[in-house]
Amino acid sequence: MSTLRFHAVKASLKRKPLNIKENNRRSEIFGKNVFNETAMRQYLTKTALSSIIEAIEKGTKINRLVADHISTGMKEWAISKGATHYTHWFQPLTGATAEKHDAFFETIGNGLAIEKFEGNQLVQQEPDASSFPNGGIRNTFEARGYTAWDPTSPAFIYGTTLCIPTVFVSYTGEALDYKTPLLRALNAVDNAAVAVCKYFDKNVKKVNASLGWEQEYFLIDSDLAASRPDIVLTGRTLLGHSPAKGQQLDDHYFGTIPNRAMSYMRDLENECMLLGIPVKTRHNEVAPNQFELAPIFEEANLAVDHNSLLMDIMQKIAKRHNFTVLMHEKPFSGVNGSGKHNNWSLSTDTGINLLSPGKTPMSNLQFLTFFINTIKAVLTHEELLRAAIASASNDHRLGANEAPPAIISIFIGEQLTKVLDELETVTKGKLSPQEKTDLKLNVVGKIPEILLDNTDRNRTSPFAFTGNKFEFRAVGSTANCANPMTVLNTIVAKQLIDFKVEVDQLIDKKEMKKDDAIFNVLREYIKTSKAILFEGNGYSTAWEKEAKKRGLSNNKTTPEALKVKIAKSTIDLFESLGVMNKIESEARYEIEMEEYILHIQIESRVIGDIARNHVVPTAVRYQNILIENVTGLKTIYGDKFTAFAKEQLSLIEQISHHIEAINSLVTKMTEARKLYNKQIDIEKKAKGYCNKVKPFFEEIRYHCDKLELMIDDELWPLTKYRELLFTK
Ligand code: ADP
Ligand code: MG
Known about the structure:
The two termini are 23 Å apart. The chain is an alpha+beta fold. Helix content is 52%, strand content 12%. The strands form three sheets. Strands 9, 10, 11, 12, 13, 14, 15, 16 and 17 form a nine-stranded mixed sheet that branches. Strands 1, 2, 5, 6, 7 and 8 form a six-stranded mixed sheet that branches. A two-stranded antiparallel ribbon has the order 3-4. Bound molecules: adenosine-5'-diphosphate and magnesium ion (MG). The site of magnesium ion (MG) has 3 residues, from loops.
């Protein structure tokens, strides 16, 4: 086995960066493989084009006749670009993207054939999808599920396949994917925000949520990665002693990007350009061999699709460069993990970012309205927001080994804290003209357009206001952003609806002026929302204590965190806004719990296997060498041999001790697994895996890592941390 390690190391050292040809005017190739407006203008009739634009802007339905025109145009465009197949591209709850390719090619009898793609093939498909997770939905109802075209996200060509973004729903209409609830949540926040915008500007007709994600990842040489069974099967290392040098020198962060990685990034970014993914920023991250890629933000649904697509092509392109991309939140113990910051804001069709301070007191009152309502929404639903980012892999970051913590709190910076403090003192009821002028001039009017202290980022905050957007930093690097985006937009929608009711009541019943009513409601929100605001170090026990006093949840593990997903309040929330019905909410809970169990189960099997079948036999082999040596010394020196064999004898004993510990721990862990496999109650089973199986990982690892330090490097079968992390 150790020969595999050395072959891998040897191969990795010989690599050269690929030579990438790149068009340095990226705007010229941007979106070339996307059926965007330029392509549509060329390939569609006027009616077809305006029908698509209306569908995108107003959500109207496209009729079948027009769909036929569109599909024909789309097919011609795709063929002109070298495509032979088409697929409905969707995001089932497995976390990966799914596709099944069909050729345009069709026979028409008499030995003749044509290329064909009809409207109904564009609009709807019925993939054989019986093995996608459905949380019991398809068992209870209909066995079938179908995909339906989402015209708001443009079709694109990848390789030689035309990919059509679709939703994936059961025959009875329940969502089986990430996209469906997201689209419903975006619709809810659109309606709620437009209604509130009308207080400030009657011309607003649509509000879009924007998302700019920042994807962190590790690049590991593919031979090195393939030599580690834990990386191959679980995406992370389950053992491995930390190297003498880690990230403590901070010499990788923002440093020169290594040549091979650079060549990979250029290749990847080139592909992103063709696919219309507007990537803009790349840099080294904190840990060795860790990097980040970020785009220019886009409408949230499109941004989610682009991130899913990106994660897929990152792996594909990595193959060409002999890299394996590790997306896992914590691939290496003792080394920084990866997240995916979700930068979020709301903007109007009149071109205003509702989370950006403006130039006039009125626009700033609008800004404060959306800013404070978001804070209030996060406070009310902090536990649900935590649940939206829960996964076995993200548990390693949240509250376990690194910031941000599992407690959701908001960082807003010094300047806005001051503004809120002043607003809190606004008089109850009608405001005097003097007070109103004063407020407008000295409080609201003085919010600077650019908030300076927000450049001083508090990296431990899970949810931070950064000048003109909120940054949800606790999202994990493997996550599909649709999940947190669905929750965030839903809770903000709900909050805005409640806000409008309260303001309208004050206007109608108390005969208050609009501004007075808004100030009054916001003042009360500020008073009650303080518990969620926190500027300090979130990764500390002091904050844990403080947060507990404030009544904030601190759900450190996925089974605990997910529970709120089936609370009555959650089910009612999603149902009342038309985002998910009860069946859908419950199904998702079940799918995520199941996924958690499987995840821990696989990790447990893998660590058991590596410890027993790789580490222990190596330890025995090395121990035999030592024994041989000691026997030899005894032959030479007779009774005096111990003077020369002290170290060897001590090692022999220590090795036996670790072998014994590993064997008994693996046996106990296997027994715990067997016990919880019999458990039918999904909550009990997940908790069993979490609290009774998972804790063995650290213990087994401890003994294996000790052996790694003791055993001859020549014999050690597992590629070491220094080789994985420092091979460039
Ligand atoms: P960081 O310092 O955290 O990397 P950046 O300013 O580089 O922050 O922005 C990170 C991401 O935020 C980018 O994807 C960017 O496009 C996005 N972003 C910027 N403004 C907004 C906004 N108003 N709404 C949503 N995302 C935004
Ligand atoms: Mg960021």
